[in-house]
Amino acid sequence: MKKEYLILALIIAGLCAYLVTHNENRNNYSLPELKPVAGSDITGITIEQKPPPIQITKTNEAWGITEKSYPVDSDKIKALVKIISTLKITALASENGDLQRYQLDPENRIKVTATDKKGSLRTFEVGKTAPSYHHTFVKLEGDDHIYHASGNFRRDFDTDVDALRDKKVLFFDKNSIKEMEITTSGITRALVATSPQNTTKAPPPEKDKVSPAGVTQKTWHFKDNTPCEEASINKILSTLSSLECNAYSMGDDKKVLSNETPVCHITFTGEKEMTFSLFDKNSNDKYPAISSTSRFPFVLDDYSGKDILSSVETLLGIEKKENASQEQ
Predict the structure, then answer these.
(1) Residue 19's Cα: distance from chain center in Å?
(2) How far apart are CA 278 and CA 288, in angstroms?
(3) In this structure, are residues 210 and 216 in contact, taking their beta carbons and an 8 Å threshold?
(4) From CA 183, how far away is CA 318, in angstroms rounded?
(5) What whole-number distance in Å separates Cα of residue 70 and Cα of residue 317?
(6) Domain locations in the chain as residue ranges
(7) What is the DSSP letter of 24?
């Protein structure tokens, strides 16, 4: 009996020693120390997932995509720079694990390289998001181990050129606009804005057109002094003063639309002159368009295109085709 107790005690002691040693080895594992990278030092980012690689370059503080220097969405590039510069390894996930399991195999991994003017600053591969959704599996350059990196950022790098491009295609201060000229359906009308004039008899307070910020709003009318529907004017200005496109999908040259007649053309005159042209819907149910503040042609979705046309037609008193056909 004493012999059996002795054997059992030895087994328990051995198990305890194994567990302690095993835990100590895991806890004492030395995680790689990443060299600090300042976001302001990053002048280039390459994202390799599907060929060709996406190359993003900063020149004179402005970010551009590919050799054509397409403007980049500022929020998205800031997010990428922050992830790269603050990359933090928090734990070892696998010493030599199944790469496909972590989406770090050649078919699924996303390779990210950040550079400065002198060369490479940081290179790592992005795998899938960890089950906790608070970490992402990564591999570091020259290291076969798989690590947990702090943050859920797979989706930030799982992108393409069109998704990264700045979609703002027309932008101006709507309060600076003094005149507008609108052409649609063969009709051209000019509009002018006038500010309220000081008179000997002050108008009732409720009629003062002053915005909450204290900026006096203009009163619009057609150039021939006929009144107009100001709600439509305000909607057009609000929509087009910060217009974002659906996509860029017609190449890089506005001449692609040079032989087409716009269904709507608007000229805005303020501190400088700006133009916007909307063309008839294409086979993909998108509205091609160009503007003076975008170097490239773009498309608007069906809803946005119709909404702009509807506001213009209402302003100019043009009866909608569907209403006319119903009355007939």
Answers:
(1) 50
(2) 6
(3) yes
(4) 12
(5) 39
(6) 39-164, 168-195+213-318
(7) H
Closest CA to 235 of 298, 289, 315: 315
Please name the amino acid found at residue 34: L
C-alpha 308/C-alpha 147 separation (Å) is 50
Query: Taking a C-beta distance cutoff of 8 angstroms, is the pair 103, 137 a contact?
Result: yes
Kindly report whether the global pTM for this prediction surpasses the value 0.85.
no
E-state strands within the chain: 44-48, 54-59, 62-65, 70-71, 89-94, 110-115, 120-129, 135-140, 146-150, 168-171, 179-184, 187-194, 219-222, 242-244, 264-269, 273-278, 287-291, 298-300
Tens digit of pLDDT at every position of the chain (328 positions): 555 655 666 566 666 555 544 444 444 568 998 999 999 999 999 999 988 999 999 999 999 999 999 999 999 999 999 999 999 999 999 987 789 999 999 999 999 999 999 999 999 999 999 999 999 999 999 999 999 999 999 999 999 999 999 999 999 999 999 999 999 999 999 999 987 664 444 445 444 444 444 455 679 999 999 999 999 999 999 999 999 999 998 788 999 998 999 999 999 999 999 999 999 999 989 999 999 999 999 999 999 999 999 999 999 998 764 444 444 4
Burial 206-217 (b: 16+ CB within 10 A, else e): eeeeeeeeeeee
Residue 8, classed as helix, strand or coil, is helix
Q: Which residue has the tokens 């087009």?
A: 240
Place of tokens 């989706």: 155
